Amino acid sequence: MRDQILQQAIVDTLAYFAIFNFALTREELWHNLFFVSGVEREITFDNFVKNLVFLLSEKEIETKHNFYFLPGRESDYYNRQNSVKFVEQKMKIAHLAIKKIRSIPFVRAVFLCNTVAGSTVTADSDIDVFIIVGKNRIFLTRFLVTFILSIFGLRRHGEKVKDRICLSFYTTEDNLGLSKIALDRPDIYLLYWLDQLVPFYDEDAWLKKIQQKNNWVKRSLPNAFSDFDLIEKFRVHDSRVGNVFKKIFEKMWIGTYGDIVEKQAKKMQLTKMRKNTYSKQNESDTKVIISDKMLKFHENDRRELFQTKWKKTRKVL
What we know:
By secondary structure, this protein is α+β, with helices and mostly antiparallel strands. The protein has helices spanning about 5-20, 25-30, 45-55, 75-100, 115, 140-150, 190-195, 205-215, 240-250, 255-275, 305-315, and strands at about 25, 60-65, 65-70, 105-115, 125-135, 165, 170, 200, 290, 295.
């Protein structure tokens, strides 16, 4: 059955991934289906396949070796193949780095995000992580995470970008809903960002909690939030010694003394941040957010750019 709304969703989805020169398999295309105005009805896989075949017959999309892309973009298929080796390489580095910080007090979970999570990585890419921390301890946790990764030469800093960990996004365990930082609809980048979070360190199922708090994503991505099957060798679990260390210091820093340490860590970091005259921290948008519940340092927040590129790339059927 021809379904123009579904066909438009297929083309719009491929248009978004075309921004990153990335082709999709049929199953990935199904999972990532994006509906501009949301979807109010059930979309079956069989109907999706029928409309996919129709679009191929009409030459609205193309395929190569079971990968799909927009007309004239066969290079997206080759780019996809070339990125595989970089993804595994950077996941190994992420695994190493997250093992270093899993035992830091108040670190609840660590997720890969952005390019590595979406497999649109290049050789020169850094490795973005999203960190969930205990409530009322975000500045203390950030200080400790930054300190540890700096010691081991794993933190992105200045011109040192390639294969470094980008520590630009933290939120507290009681602040998991991210609709408040979304751009005017559709914030297509944030939608996929949430769907593509990779749970490297997540002993207490924080990914499920994030998905529950951000269920609004499914209005535009109805097939989002399927179970994530991360290869076990990349998962990071608590270590016996590290977990004991973590619990001791959390108990020590949970009360009044912890409040004092958090206040000191906050004062020190805010003082340093104010000296950055190039920062967008004082602008009235969501590029940079500095609060007791969220630290977001996306000075070069490209969401508006990607939205503009997607709108130029998509074709209205």
